[in-house]
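Exercise 7. Predict the joint structure of the components listed below.
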Amino acid sequence: MAVDQELKIELGKQGIFVATIEELYNWGRRSSVWPMQFGLACCAIEMIATTMARYDMARFGAEVFRPSPRQADLMIVSGTVTKKMAPQVVRLYNQMAEPRYVIAMGACAISGGPFKQGYNVLKGIDRYIPVDVHIPGCPPRPEALLQAFMTLQKKIDEQHLTGEGRPRFLDSNAQGEFPVPVQAEHDLEPTSNQGVWPVQIQGLGTRD
Amino acid sequence: MVSSPYFSLAVLFVVALAFGLAPLGLAWLWAKAFAPPKPNPTKNAIYECGLESKGDAWVQFRSAYYLYGIIFLIFDVEAVFLLPFAVAFTGLSAAACIAMLVFVLLLIEGLAWAWAKGVLTWA
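Solution:
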């Protein structure tokens, strides 16, 4: 059970630090989110800029971008997802070890973006995999990607270890495999994953 | 037993072992409670940049390591066998001596080959 906020502050003034195991666990997890090297298009250039000296993302914990999905916590889908690439994206998401998170960076990953009329453009990656944070923009500035990262960190902070609201990776009955679409004659088959699309809109506990 | 001179060493040994094993045990308990395994065929598939892999993962084997294998056999393994032989060969029968010399001859062939190949000189 969590300690009352004012009591915490009072104790803190006396030099006593009080925390729950859940807080410590979430603090450890959110301070070391390792993204996967996954850039598709122009947003990837902004993502690279975010990791470089000026907007350094390593100070938030994204120290290394892992090339292998098994060692990554976060997949930043940056760029247009074509229907040819969509099965690979979903398969990589499936190959990531839980807990795993997805940031849809840029208008193309959210909904197809400026290329929405394209015959080969997937209208948003959240048709197949659950997305945690969406960043609008074309491309979003590096500061926007850092804001999304901080939003994801806030989301991780609010995840519970036990109980009904616990996240997918703690629940052995929750969906772990998201079906990979295949190229059919005119379109991908299936056109969207059940349970993922349409998106359930969830708010954060605390507004920024 | 408490009066044995090594008793304190035994205590220290047990404590050192516990010091190392206790965090591992706690981590195992935590994983049992808060990391339920959720394997599925796609998750366990071979990684090939998101594509379906045909066949097993290729292991890169450097065939140049066979040279190191031969040199190691000659200089390390043969030396280990030669040392007791050198001490005891006056007491061995003729058949045992000949078997041992055949073994040494085989390894000398390897040495001669490596020497002729120029492996033994610094580049």
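Discussion. Residues 65-117 of chain B form one domain.
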